[in-house]
Amino acid sequence: MSRFFSEKYSALEVYTPGEQPKDMQYVKLNTNESPFPPSPKAREYAAKAAENLQLYCDPTCAKLTESFAEVYGIGTDEVLFTNGSDDALNFAFMAFCDDDHPAAFADITYGFYPVFAALNRIPFTEIPLKEDFTINADDYIGINKTVFIANPNAPTGIALPLCEIERILLSNPDNVVIVDEAYVDFGAQSAVSLIRQYNNLLVTQTFSKSRSLAGGRLGMAIANKKLIQDLNTIKYSTNPYNVNSMTQAAGIGTLTDEAYTQKNCKTIIENRAYLTAQLEKLGFVHTDSLTNFVFAKHPSFDGKKLYGSLKERGVLVRHFTKERIKDYNRITVGTKAQIDILLKNIQEILEESI
Length: 354
Fold this sequence. Notes:
By secondary structure, this protein is α/β, with parallel strands linked by helices. The chain is about 35% helix and about 15% strand. A hairpin with a 6-residue loop joins strand 9 (about 285) and strand 10.
């Protein structure tokens, strides 16, 4: 870094995104992208919007907001669209955390939480998951902190029941509880239905996973209108034009084609079951995932070594170095053909190690 870089950020440990290598053609199962292209309507709408890129995008995302509110049965003042759900999460750290309202989240969860806390100079507590990688709701009861829960969690894939979320909400009435639902469409239960019941609940979601718009960068925060007003204060103090015209249009097109989204989710859930069953036959153990990825390890094969061996063969999975999970790899659920290539290479690697 240069000598001009602010001292307040000098110790910042940045988030490490999943690899996007270009040195060869990979079977890419490392960043939890959808294996399916965006809806044809999303592409059509985005192409039409490209004709007017000389104009600023609508900072209110009015048409997109109306479409989303209709599909989800909420008010237009109960949702805020952002540049990916990371944008919404950062807004939440800025709006609802400070020295008097420190943050709390799991020790093994989405890696951006500690980065956002450090970036915004917010004190935070990392709460250990149980030995089986589940969240113990009791650890969050009455802690009087701003709570961030990825549900289902990443990289473990395990979901916390909605009744446990409610216990946490009820016991922390003076703090916001943020439920990050990036993977909720693959079998978990959403907390969106609770936003009018609990005025301290904020739900974030994304179009990156189930709706095949990872490259479009479209996320949203869903809550009662007062919390949304708070986030808008942050948005309009940073970047009012945070969702570009083509992405807004692609989002509207996607929402008009819910059948396409649901079909893809169903296929991914089926492929997840196939992948886990085949991994079990190869001796792997895994968590109970309700996401579009599987978190698995082989009891007699080093996780980092497996990751490296697969990469050499043109198959990418995600490996984490944190001590508790270093034996695991996170494997995105791809197409059946991608999964079969993965399994064939794993079997060959295991056989060569004997």
